[in-house]
Amino acid sequence: MAKFIVTGGAELTGEVTPVGNKNAVLKLIPASILFSGDYTLTNVPAITDVDVMLQILEEMGAAVDYSKDTGTVTINTDNLNTYIVPSDLAKKLRASVVFIGPLLARFGKVKSLFPGGDKIGSRELKAHFQSLNQLGAVVTGNEWGEFEVSGNLHPGTVYLYEPSVTATENVILAASKLNGTSTIVGAACEPHVKELCMWLQENGVQIQGIGSNIITISGISEIKTAGKTHSVWPDYLDVGAYAVAAAITNSELRIKNVRHEDLITINFFYEQLGLKLQAQGGDLLISKNQPLQVRDLVWGRTKGIYSQPWYGFPSDLMSITIALSMSVGGSTLFFEKLYSDRLSFVSYFNAAGGNIVQCDPHRIVVNGRTQLKGFNYIAPDIRAGMAYFLAALGAEGVSEINAAEHIDRAYPNTLENFQRIGAKVERID
Predict the structure, then answer these.
(1) Which of 22, 195, 264, 265 is the most exposed place for a label (fewest CB within 10 A)?
(2) Residues labelled catalytic
(3) What is the pTM of this model?
């Protein structure tokens, strides 16, 4: 079990560049199944989840050429020879579920295993199966174990009872190969869904309503890039992590090459906590001496920060924002509406000197401003692991963040990136 050893209190300085969006690239990789010929992505983050997704394709017969140094991967799925997702790999990460749509479109069937991933609460596949049912798919087997989806798909209207990102992406990918028009009502519209749609559209699939919750797809039988490559958009969650790191350590950081349109929600909620993200061209500047204080005390106690579908506050930002809020004067309610175990990690913060009240599995109240002491943490998932790491940067003394492998799944080269800007960090593998 790898661990980070962090000595808190160091001031950060310099420039950082966010990695390619994890939640985008993990869907762009299985999308290659729909394409003929070479399929190239750049700005691919060197994370372990990418390794697993590419290994799945290789074991299914695809040719993969991946350079972590340049962040470039070229995939050719012309010789893909099976509709069965390797079960030992499928159970390693949640994104393996996104192989359902493209495999179903290509082979008329797919066999897989309930996906793995972070243990943050129930993550059933009901939205996936019900949405594909509406296009003619039939599901057999055990939703929580091994299952098979098959059928002759037809264009149609799909109603999503919840705006699941991965269910939306599965329908988009399945419908992109259908001759005819399909409409998703109640679609997710997160930036990575938009990115997937725009890439498919660039290669001949007609898609209307991109970025909205009603998406119409006019599929085509053959999709090919004709030599085009796609550069993965920067990860707004990585931008959020660097912004929180700067605020917690009272440092100035410049975050290069961001997509400001993906930061609208983060800007609003962080401003409510007194953290200003200053746009400067294509960059974002986090200045020193931020007035970290809940701006509206009534809002903080009664409304606070609550996870919602986009353009609401992303669930994946809850953990690091909780770490930030311990440095903010006033009380802030956090309401995690999606996952029942997302907030269970905060007990370690209380042991380290925080003042957090757990109201129920979905709600906590953070009472700031508190000074954490060094502590030995065990990361339960990706986002909680990074929250521990960021909190440790501002703590007094030395902290250990064990199970650092979780952090590696979304934040590559954490040691080198933070050492470069002045953090006192070591890693033991």
Answers:
(1) 264
(2) 118
(3) 0.93
